[in-house]
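Per reviewer request, we include the raw input and output of the structure prediction for the construct analysed in the revised manuscript.
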Amino acid sequence: MRHAFLLIAHNEFQLLKVLLSMLDDKRNDIFLHIDKKVDIKSLDKDLFILKHARLFLLEHRLDVRWGDISVVKVEMLMFETARMKGPYDYYHLLSGVDLPIKSQDYIHEFFEKNKGYEFVAYSQGEANLKDLEWKMSNYHLFTRYYKIPPRFRKK
């Protein structure tokens, strides 16, 4: 059983290195998109060295912004790229700051037992209630410009 892990990273590259080491398994292929805003030459070259998994660094890099259509575009790019290298039994979409809480053996065994099923999750509960309420009860227009200082937004 082959798994494709699709990682979208934009910061916290030490954590990304930990994530890559946790996914480094011969049964996995890893597809990595690094945000266009990042100077890729400044990253540690050891980040891209794996022992067992194949790592595909996407050459076409997008400027990804929270809540923007660019998130969907990069996800589609990741799925299309992985599909061309596949086929895979499962595709896992992760951010570069996610970490698995189970071993690769556990993960592969779980999906082997549940072959053919799809798993989609979302957060709920008290810890996420305020965040979910803010995201769902407001219109988030012009998210591409969230990081621009207010003095420039007014213009």
